[in-house]
Specification:
single chain, five-stranded mixed β-sheet, 10 helices, elongated, two-stranded antiparallel sheet, alpha/beta, about 280 residues
């Protein structure tokens, strides 16, 4: 009699290996740790082999477990291809996306609308935060894809844009420039301060906030100036020699390894939308 291996059990097994623990696997496959532990035990009983051994608190694959892992990945990939073919690239699980605030304000609405149009049954999990925080969530397998900011020339860059000064054009002529910034960590904050200090300009932090909306209101109200990219559109750009030049910044796309085909398509969709951004249409609603 043929032995049938349950795909969901194999998926949990691979999640334990990729996550490095039952806890991280539970976040990935949305089962409790005891349930995953029972699945692993069931798989070992079906195959009549031990898949893991313990080294302290760590779970380490046995030699036979290594062999099973290779074949399990092949089976899951084939399963996902079959599902994608028959359902039009349907997403089999939740889509976990992370954005920095700039993209959440200007890009998120249209992107999510397009994603839902392509996949009406998709379940979305969206995080908005700073790039370092989102990268930590990606590395701990709690996000699938993130869109953030990086230095110019970042290998993960999908677009590069110059930083610009925004605010009331009369503020830079003051002896001490009033500066509005996001709280640390923020590469725009660091760039603005570094540029002013390199130019020997005196400044004062008049607004520090975790919210891009508050920052926008402060700049619009003439409280201080700030630096962002054209994603911060809808405000007056301060051009000319009144303020020192700023560096460029990359829009970066990072993704988890071994994405399903539909999630790979999502990354392509994000990249296209980022590169199609028209700065003339970036005013917030």
């Amino acid at each position: 009699m043929a032995l049938n291996l349950p795909v969901d059990v194999l998926r949990s097994f691979v999640a334990v290996v990729d996550g490095g623990s039952m806890l991280r696997a539970s976040e990935r496959v949305f089962l409790s740790q005891p349930a995953i532990s029972l699945q692993i035990k069931r798989l070992e009983e079906l195959l009549q082999i031990p898949l893991f051994r313990r080294e302290g608190r760590r779970l380490v694959l046995t030699t036979q477990g290594d062999d099973v892992l290779i074949l399990a990945r092949e089976m899951l990939a084939l399963n996902d291809r079959i599902v994608a073919t028959l359902t039009g690239e349907a997403l089999g699980g939740p889509v976990r996306i992370g954005f920095v605030q700039d993209f959440a304000e200007t890009l998120l609405e249209g992107l999510l609308a397009q994603l839902v149009a392509l996949h009406p049954d998709v379940r979305l999990e969206v995080r908005v935060g700073g790039t370092p925080q989102l990268l930590d969530l990606l590395e701990s397998d709690r996000l699938d894809v993130i869109l953030g900011m990086g230095v110019a020339g970042d290998p993960a860059a999908i677009r590069e844009e110059p930083m610009r000064w925004f605010g009331n054009a009369g503020l830079p002529v003051r002896d001490t420039i009033p500066l509005a910034v996001l709280e640390r960590p923020c590469r725009f904050r660091d760039a603005a301060i570094a540029a002013l200090e390199a130019a020997g300009r005196s400044y004062q932090l008049v607004v520090e906030t975790p919210s891009l909306s508050v920052l926008r209101a402060a700049v619009r109200g003439g409280v201080g100036i700030t630096c962002r990219t054209d994603l911060f559109g809808g405000l007056h750009e301060i051009a000319g020699p009144a303020l020192p030049p700023l560096p460029s910044v990359s829009y970066v796309l990072h993704k988890r390894e071994r994405l399903a085909p539909a999630l790979i398509n999502l990354c392509e969709l994000i990249s296209k939308r980022v590169n199609d951004i028209d700065v003339l249409d970036l005013s917030p609603h």
